[in-house]
């Protein structure tokens, strides 16, 4: 019996095919608002696959179910989507990577890693406008039709009808329609820029977010990552180059920016998610990138207790030469902020104890116990404090 291909092999093969095909996908005219294709057509088939992927997205544990956040992101998408607002359904996913994607049927995913990295509503508007432009101009269908003309589509359809439909459709088949050509990316940059500016957003934001992503890549702890091209999406085969940034800067030249305070208004919408999203980002274990991200967020002068705590966490977990002292300094700084997480005093006590500052460690742990009355690890901190006190008595 012929062995079934594994999910990883299938996804890898489809991704490889989509990368090769993205350079030759033809351009498409702007689609009609509210259009849904006949199921008997190739576009109708693509929509059917997208519908299945959307159903899969609704079941994911990472789906952020906060109605206010989803409504806010959708509102921004609608501002740049103009007449296509009624075609869009937005899902915020708690995944620590920069990614936004819009399927041919109008289902859009926006990942928390993106929301954590954009610093204003204008930057978010440009990225969402970029994705809506792909949708409005049929870029996914262009790629899909080219893919269908090659032998790999047989494998795609075979697997889609086999026993690994869910994950393959979600991460495999959908990836084929999110790999766009250089021309399509350039067009989406330009159209996304114009959509955002027309909606009243800051024209310099488009270049700013791409530039920031390149800077974060350069800050990676891993040499291989630092030498790779920066990409604006996990599905995007076209890198963010200096030429793309220069083109957006040229478009913004001479245009008027919005009033002050936009970054503060954006931060207000994501503030309560910062601890969870930064915790997720630390799990990527690229602490250089996380530290760069935290520095960018800190520059706005808000949420300093939270940000300094997670800076300490990044240094503590990385453990390079000098990181222990940097972590301790970050925890000390965080502990003086009114918005410091309670966990600051637990980590501070642990680090102070390790460097022999017994009295300070005792104070930190006692502060933690006073603040974290119902903490699950309370017993562990109490045991550490007891051991510290016994050592002092002996």
Order of helices and strands: HHHEEEHHHHHHHHHHHHHHHHH
Q: What is the radius of gyration?
A: 24 Å
Helix and strand content put the structural class at mainly alpha
Rounded to the nearest angstrom, the distance between the terminal CA atoms is 72 Å
Tell me what you see in this structure.
The chain is mainly alpha-helical and 394 residues long. It has two domains: 7-252, no CATH class; 264-393, Alpha Horseshoe (Serine Threonine Protein Phosphatase 5, Tetratricopeptide repeat), CATH 1.25.40. Helix content is 62%, strand content 3%. The chain contains 20 helices and three strands. It has helices at residues 7-21, 42-58, 67-81, 112-117, 121-136, 139-148, 152-160, 165-176, 182-198, 205-218, 223-226, 242-252, 262-270, 274-282, 287-298, 304-318, 323-335, 343-354, 358-371, 378-393, and strands spanning 89-93, 100-102, 107-111. The chain has a three-stranded mixed sheet, sandwiched between helices. The radius of gyration is 24 Å and the shape is elongated. The model is unreliable at 1-27 and 153-170 (pLDDT under 50).
């Amino acid at each position: 019996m012929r062995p079934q291909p594994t999910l990883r092999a299938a996804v890898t093969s489809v991704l490889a095919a989509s990368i090769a095909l993205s350079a030759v996908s033809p351009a498409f005219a702007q689609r009609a608002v509210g259009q849904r294709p006949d199921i008997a057509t190739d576009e109708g088939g693509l929509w059917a696959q997208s519908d299945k992927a959307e159903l899969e997205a609704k079941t994911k544990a990472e789906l952020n179910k906060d109605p206010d956040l989803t409504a806010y992101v959708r509102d921004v998408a609608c501002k740049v989507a103009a007449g296509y607002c009624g075609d869009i359904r937005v899902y915020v996913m708690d995944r620590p990577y920069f990614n936004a994607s819009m399927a041919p049927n109008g289902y859009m995913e926006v990942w928390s890693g993106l929301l954590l990295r954009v610093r204003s509503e204008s930057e978010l508007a440009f990225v969402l406008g970029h994705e809506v432009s792909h949708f409005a101009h049929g870029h996914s269908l262009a790629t899909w039709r080219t893919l269908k003309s090659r032998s790999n589509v047989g494998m795609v359809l075979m697997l889609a009808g086999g026993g690994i439909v869910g994950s393959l459709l979600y991460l495999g088949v959908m990836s084929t329609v999110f790999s766009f050509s250089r021309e399509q990316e350039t067009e989406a940059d330009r159209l996304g820029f114009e959509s955002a500016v027309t909606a009243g957003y800051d024209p310099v934001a488009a270049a700013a977010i791409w530039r920031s992503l390149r800077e974060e890549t350069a800050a990676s702890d891993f040499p291989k990552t630092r030498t790779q091209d920066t990409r604006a999406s996990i599905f995007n085969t076209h890198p963010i180059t200096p030429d793309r940034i220069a083109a957006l800067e040229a478009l913004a030249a001479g245009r008027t920016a919005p009033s002050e305070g936009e970054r503060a208004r954006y931060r207000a919408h994501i503030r309560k998610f910062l601890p969870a999203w930064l915790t997720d980002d630390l799990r990527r274990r690229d602490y250089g990138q996380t530290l760069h991200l935290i520095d960018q967020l800190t520059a706005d002068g808000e949420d300093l207790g939270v940000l300094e705590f997670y800076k300490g966490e990044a240094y503590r977990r990385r453990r390079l030469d000098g990181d222990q002292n940097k972590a301790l300094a970050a925890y000390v700084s965080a502990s003086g902020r009114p918005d410091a997480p309670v966990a600051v005093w637990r980590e501070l006590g642990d680090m102070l104890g390790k460097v022999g500052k017994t009295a300070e460690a005792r104070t930190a742990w006692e502060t933690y116990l006073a603040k974290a009355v119902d903490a699950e690890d309370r017993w562990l901190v109490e045991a550490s404090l007891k051991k510290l006190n016994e050592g002092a008595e002996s």
